[in-house]
Design brief:
414 residues, alpha+beta, D-amino Acid Aminotransferase, Chain A, domain 1, five-stranded parallel β-sheet, 31% helix, globular
């Protein structure tokens, strides 16, 4: 009789929450480190910080964990994969060295340039004055970002020199080591995801992304506040082209360097009005705002899939990844206020991923300031998924509620 396998998921945000819910469908025991309040209601959480990879390893060794899945960018940056592999422990995650181009905006841009993959014109600065001098002659709008690729990293689309100069000054005053400036590219933003063991790679799906806070792509630029998948604007031919000219090229370069990338890789792209695409950067796993939307469509057993990548049998075991014909639409609900009671969650039929909201002494959920929830609805068509998603959003009530009302708005019969 086979014993139940033990799985550890490292992280504490919405993508980890979505992954935990997916793994609860399998015959395994699940742990999370460090997890959050919401995850504690589903599984056992281990009080170990994401950057303390040595202590995470010790927990794995002491508790007989069969597979660790590190989706936390902090843990990946602290090379949890390298440490685990050196100690013969199975882990589904890229090493810090192999993922550096997906964790650092500047490294990603340099990598794209080196591989001659089309990307918007950019410049990288480690001092204020050269950055200001560059902005004087730069084409506006400019996208200005802190170097770190994360949900909390500062980013802004600047339409004027004064706005751009002020924001760059603010970043350097915050002691940012590098600032990345990039020409803003108009078009349709999407992410193309693939899964790899570092040698073989298979496509997952394309996801249409909504990054700006306000309807119609206004307001501040975020890491993502909504999506739909599959992205009907991205043809199969274009997906094949991205697999061949971007994903395969990246993975082959990393393999040649002796740093093969193991895990899920996302290429953030813009489809321009002329039908050409450019690559903005990369994701070292599914993004928070689209994790549940993608996971809902994958019909493979992820425990088996991730294990195959970790042990090196991926190429032998998989010729393709089974993905359903359904469609998913997601929307992030944010709050301008903290500590406000959230009502209506018990009436919602959409899937809910949690950014870390907590219950008060009366067992009522309360808001945190910023992103609170990701609602995802999956249906036979995008139009039906969108309709039911927004019906559920209307049911949820709290003071300071903020979300985009135009996600997947133009879809009709898809």
């Amino acid at each position: 009789m086979n014993k139940r396998k033990k799985v550890l998921i490292v992280g504490n945000s919405a993508k980890e929450y979505a992954l935990v819910k997916k793994f609860r469908k399998y015959d395994c025991d699940i742990y999370a480190a460090p997890g959050n309040y919401a995850l504690k209601e589903l599984i056992e959480c281990v009080d170990i910080r994401e950057d303390n990879v040595q202590e995470i390893l010790e927990f794995v060794l002491e508790n007989g964990i069969d597979l660790t899945i590190a989706v936390s960018e902090t843990a990946i940056k602290n090379d949890i994969a390298g440490l685990f592999q050196a100690n013969d422990q199975l882990i589904f995650a890229p090493s810090a060295q192999s993922a550096s181009f997906a964790l650092s905006r500047s490294a990603g841009k340099r990598f794209l340039y080196k591989l001659r993959i089309p990307t918007p014109r950019f410049a990288i600065f480690d001092k204020l004055q050269p950055a200001v001098d560059y902005l004087k002659n730069a084409v506006m709008p400019q996208v200005i970002r802190a170097d770190e690729n994360s949900n909390s990293a500062d980013r802004l689309v600047c339409n004027t020199f004064i706005t751009a100069k002020t924001f760059v000054e603010d970043l350097f005053f915050k002691d940012e080591k590098k600032v990345v400036l990039e020409d803003f590219v108009y078009g349709h933003e999407f992410t193309f995801y693939a899964v790899t063991d570092g040698y073989s790679v298979l496509p997952l799906t394309s996801v249409a992304n909504y990054k700006f806070m306000e309807d119609g792509d206004g307001g501040i630029l975020t890491s993502g506040i909504g999506c739909y998948t599959p992205d009907y604007k991205i043809s199969k031919e274009l997906e094949f082209e991205i697999m061949d000219s971007v994903v395969q090229k990246v993975l082959q370069s990393l393999e040649k360097k002796g740093t093969p990338y193991l895990g899920i890789l996302g290429a953030e792209c813009v489809l321009q009005p002329d039908g050409q695409f450019v690559v903005l950067g990369f994701k070292p796993f599914l993004a928070d705002h689209d994790a549940e939307a993608v996971l809902n469509l994958i019909e493979e057993n992820l425990l088996t899939l991730f294990e195959a990548c970790a042990v090196g049998s991926f190429a032998d075991d998989y010729e393709s990844i089974a993905v359903s014909n359904n469609s998913s639409v997601s929307c992030v609900l944010s709050s301008r206020l903290e500590g406000k009671i959230i009502n209506g969650l018990e009436f919602v039929e959409s899937d809910i991923s949690n950014f870390g909201i907590k219950k008060n002494e009366y067992f009522e959920y309360e808001t945190i300031k910023g992103k609170n929830l990701v609602l995802t609805r999956t249906a036979k068509t995008l139009s039906r998924a969108r309709k039911h998603l927004y019906e559920d959003i209307d049911v949820i009530e709290f003071d300071g509620k903020k979300y985009r009302a135009d996600i997947c708005e133009q879809v009709d019969n898809f």
